[in-house]
Design brief:
Helices cover 2% and strands 46% of the residues. It contains 1 helix and 52 strands. A hairpin with a 4-residue loop joins strand 6 and strand 7. It is elongated and about 80 Å long. The N terminus is likely disordered.
Length: 617
Amino acid sequence: MKNARGPGSGVRGRPGTATPLALYIDGPITMRCARLKSSPTRLRTPDSGLRTRAIALLLLAVGMSPAADVVCDGVLGNSGEQGPALVRFGEQNARGIGVVVDRFGSLWDRAGKGVLNRYAADGRLLGSYRIRTNENGNDQIALVGDTLVLLLGGRLHTLAVTAPAGSEATALKVEAKTLSFAAYKGRVALSQGDKIGWFDPATNAIEALVEMKDVDALEVGADGTVYARSKNNLHRVTGGGTTSATSGWPKAAPGERPQFLDGWWYGHAWHGTIRRADQNLDPNPGVVLGGASGSFIGHLDQNTELSNCRGMAKLWDGAFALSGIGGILQVASWDGATKQFTIVRRVGAVPSCRGLGLDRDGRVFHHTGVWQWHDGPDVPMKFQINPPEGLGQVVMLDDERMVVATNLWGKPAFIRGDLTIEAKTDRIEKDCALPKDTVGAALYKGDGGWTLLTVTPDGKANAFALDPEGRYRADRAAVSLSTAQPVKEWTSLAMMGDTLLAGADGQVINFARDGEGWKEAKRWNSWGDSAEQKFGVRIHISGDGTTLVVADRERHRVLGFAPEGGVPLWSFGAVDKAGTDLATMEHPETVAIRNARVVVYDAGNQRLLKLRLTNAR
């Protein structure tokens, strides 16, 4: 298949289709829609006869055990999946700025601080571009012909859609407060203080229109009429002034960042809520996506990554791109019968991952929602909840319920529930000592329920009493983690029977009970004398009672051990060799294991990898 990589060879939607899988590049092609059912990548595939014995001897020679094979079942959370198409965001979070679709059919949105990404409609990365790192809540993107106009941190920038990947947007000596989504006759509307005008990116000229106070959004209609949002009302600007109140204007805006698109008005609110109104701003039908927190009578699922939507763009009839608040794009299809949007594709990466939940059926909890094991790299998460402020390590109860310590709206909180429905978040108003920077967590039984043990990067441990369903009951007495040597950084915990394990300073530390606390029994970071048989300087661990998994970050591999350690039962990745295919990783970190399945955060590639163990003991 011929891929679109450079300028001038983008992707455009086949006219008249409503599916994001039917596209063509310089002629008809079939998208890689079969990738969700692609064959898994198998490492150390069992064979017969001499080959099997040779593999076993080779593994034993380097200190490995042939007890299990590892199958990579694919990627979650990165719509580019692998190789050059992998999506990557900037190192720090930044809000989305809206989305535009150029004449080649490719999508543009900010992806972390200092990064502007260009995507194919199927989620592959076509190129990354450098932009200003300064930002504020009014940042926005518009398209004028083949020129992108970017409002970043109060200043306008431009970039040609035909610019080669890696180019930097040009900063103009034009300051602005707001920018319109739409353009008219080669110009976009902007506001500078209380002044509204037209801006021409070809000449950088500004034509004054009118003065208006408290303008926080602008839009341009199909006939060139400028609309200004002020104090939640939308004003129409005509003939150098606003229309009078007797003509019915101003009118209530449909929401934040109002946008006139394809003959309809759209507005946005929190919890992934999108409202649609007709040209007269009468609701038609009103809420078309989301609707949580009272925006809709009843309950509609929210998409946390979309909330609060930064803007929209039409891909083709019945398909729209939606810019999420964190820069993750969602592709939505429109159902004319129900007058509702349905999100069908996630375009972006996993820029960070502090905790992962995994149940016996392979459902994966990440940050705010759930993926199924069979989901592909561009599948949106389900059962999403309000985004927490940081997230600790996820632990699983015997009945497949998860528990994770976090903070929500400035208060300690515990997320709980099974992964087949939307999780519950218990926000603790007082008398809870949960720190904000919890990283590791482990769970053990006691007093008719559970004890949740948490640890911060500097080793501060706390214990909390949970009921049998994982609901917070009370803080327990202070807990000490007594070590034989000082520890600089703790990353993770795991319970293996009656033994508590910790990942810290590139070592696995085994603890035994010591009254109400825990005391170091041993620590280890190798299983032999060769260089390959030693962990790097930072590891993350997880256990399911029978297997301890170690994500060896600096050495780009994941290893499985018996609870007591010893020779690894299996490994995945190429030691000391980073890669982007389905057999390699770059800096694996957070990891979870359950029922012969492992999910690992491949941090350098900003994706989750699904690993399945076969022939496991």
